[in-house]
């Protein structure tokens, strides 16, 4: 067991693993640590999916980044945000599940990260290497289907754990004063931003950290690419405040996949509806000589109007 201060001085994500399993008894320690993590309101809104099926792991690796380390690590876990089990527990005792989708997404993500992080730190303290895999968001829909994730559950990230083959040098971090503020939020000065790029320079091969930020976070970058898929998956799994998951699933056979109310409105207008009319408790999708109606709250109603538009009609 390594001292925690010393561990954090030297820790780095590991991407080259030896083809060796964890030592006897260590998996139990990792899972024990994960379960000892703090959790909001005692609820434990996460699930750790241990992927033991080699072909499933291979498929997840392909759908994520094609990262070699996803395949070669001794263990690969999918860290899931999960309010499904909590809903089962509540309903098991006759409770009526509340409507708090954004808060559910928030606290289930927090719980999942805390549990995964405890697992990861325990692994590192036992001398293993770890690497988080946000790349699972690239194939979030397919991975969720392969792993049969129900409503109320979505992947937060993957986590590789294994015996390190190569331990990289620790990567730099931003200057402390940029990430720790006192009492009120402090905007960084332009000169501090320059110093940030300077501090992070060694993290890249090109010598320019901006190249990394550009690839991920600018217009047309990786994050923007992930956004639509992520929104659609979390909405379909019940985490969008406006869109009922059941309704979204009923639209899918008609080729309509939406992750927000805005996306459904845009879709309607792109499909040639002249207008989308919202009135209290009702939505109309209007075409030249026709109008299709749906009742309910705005999200529910527009889904119903779409379903009305697409259902086979008697000649009028
Ligand atoms: C949420 C999250 C997602 C990540 N996704 C990936 C990934 O998909 N592939 C990968 O090789 N590393 C991934 N990483 C590892 C980061 O690249 C790494 O933590 C960062 O570069 C800092 O390096 P260090 O952990 O060695 O200090 C991820 C880390 C986090 C926290």
From TrEMBL:
Q: Which GO terms describe its molecular function?
A: oxidoreductase activity
Q: Where are the transmembrane segments?
A: none
Domain named Nitroreductase is located at 10-162
- Print the keywords alphabetically: Flavoprotein, FMN, Oxidoreductase
Concerning its family, UniProt says: Belongs to the flavin oxidoreductase frp family.
Q: What is this protein called?
A: Nitroreductase
